[in-house]
Amino acid sequence: MTPAEVIDAVYGAGGLLVLSGGRIKYTIPKTASWLVAEVSSQREDVCELLRERVVSPPMPPGIRLLNWKPKAPPIAIIQVGVVTDVNQFVAATLLQVRARLEGKNFLAGNWSLRELVDRLDQVGMEVMVEASESGGLQK
Q1: Mean pLDDT in runs of 10 for the chain (139 residues)?
Q2: 91/45 same-domain check
């Protein structure tokens, strides 16, 4: 197999190859474990091809790329917010709930009803939605 065929075989089997410094980190399903030997035997060429494949996306005008080291998926992206005025947050969120129930998604901040209820719960206000988008009750 050529180095390109090895890489394609790993990805085709549901595996993943990532460069980490000068090393290849891999995830290869047990059903394709024979590919580990192929990757190892062609390590330098596989590394070179992986380096060539990691190309940064084009930057918009006014943006300069300082560093590009893509991480291996899956990557969990977590949204974090800090509430400093609970009463104001609750009042604003209840307005978003009302907007969501009226079908005004933009005014609801494009939050789902479930997300809005969860946000209220996180600051100490447990509510039940009697008339939801699905017609059932929601906590």
Answers
A1: 91 86 86 93 90 70 75 76 92 94 93 93 88 47
A2: no
Among 87, 14, 6, 91, CA closest to 53: 6
CA–CA distance, 56 with 9 (Å, rounded to integer): 24
Mark whether 83 and 138 lie in a shared domain: yes
**Does 91 lie in the same domain as 36?**
no
- HSE at residue 139, side-chain half, CA atoms within 13 A, is 4
Angle, alpha carbons 78-83-88 (nearest 5°): 135
Asked if 116 and 127 count as a contact pair (C-beta separation under 8 A), the reply is no
My answer on whether 82 and 138 are in the same domain is: yes
Structure tokens at 70: 């893509």
Residue 35, domain extent: 3-53
Looking at the structure, tell me whether residues 89 and 136 fall in a common domain. Answer: yes
1 DSSP β-pair partners? none
pTM, two decimals, is 0.45
